[in-house]
Amino acid sequence: MNQSQARTILDTIADMFPDAHCELNHSNAFELTIAVLLSAQCTDETVNKVTATLFQKYKRPEDYLAVPLEELEQDIRRIGLFRNKAKNIQALCAMLLDKYNGEVPREHEKLVELPGVGRKTANVVVSNAFDVPAIAVDTHVERVSKRLGLAGVNDSVLEVEKKLMKRVPREEWTQTHHRLIFFGRYHCKAQNPKCEVCPLVDLCREGKKRMKSNSNRKPIPKAKAAIKAAKTKEA
Question: What pLDDT sits at residue 230?
Fold first, then answer.
């Protein structure tokens, strides 16, 4: 993968999903932190359904600590791993009050110390809440990066992040993160990716294999056609 190919990928995905953004509903850094914590192994759609009422009931760290753990568990019961996440939320809120006066810290190294907050969550928070350039690698970003050759097939999540940080200009990190997610969520899906209408298929490891094995291979459309299809789906 050379820099010209990487630039082609970034520009094409930017054309396909110019309005890519964080799809987790939130109004401040605290709500975003809770939402991203809840989103682990769960869809953003489900998280947004739960937080629609959750964020009305709980507005500050103190609110999450004012109820029994069992009550919070019931409030997020539709979320996968809800018991463990409820425990982490209360522990996180306790630490925010104890160390940061109830405010979510802006520093990445402080965020990853919070219960239930890993590197991905911290990257999402600093980039979306505090406008600090970062690339959070979730399942979509990892899958797309490996398929398109932006990272190695056997790379760890951290290695994928580091390679993306080298290939993508720093000022584009945050937006590229969102665009890669949209590309993976709505176009280059884990199952049944849209290889037959993908303008990047010639740069895609898996796409080339899929199309080669497809006896009914259709002509690859121009980028504009794929972009139009993607935008229709996005809408």
Answer: 63
